[in-house]
Amino acid sequence: MDKLLQIIPLILGFFAVLFVAYLATKFLGPKMSHLGASKHMRIVDRVFLGNDKSICIIQVGKRFFLIGVTNHHIGDISEIAEADLVPLTVQRDNTFNSLFESYIKKFRQSHEDNWDDRDRIQQIKEGLEKQKRRMKDI
Fold this sequence. Notes:
Layout: H1 2-32, E1 41-50, E2 53-60, E3 63-69, E4 74-80, H2 96-111, H3 117-137
């Protein structure tokens, strides 16, 4: 009983901290979101080159600038004409999905000769029946 009385204030304190954190995010969050916003400039695009290194296209008014950003320095690379900003198409040859799909195709091709669709369905049914029997035994 003494341990229970010691635990109750800890639990109440935990919930009090959660409640205060909720209130802080609810009321202060919207006010703080405007701190990084700007009426006259924005980051149009960013490419990360490595740890703490990136190249950004920023728009200031109607002008566009290419800048380099590192941990200790921000440097102006050049000004870009708006006509030169053309959206690039992204090649998706090395994405995880394409690599995974090519692996699955190779796997299916190598195993099509060994397995027939009916055999696979039968194996799945047998596996499900075994699992059902195990569950009944438990």
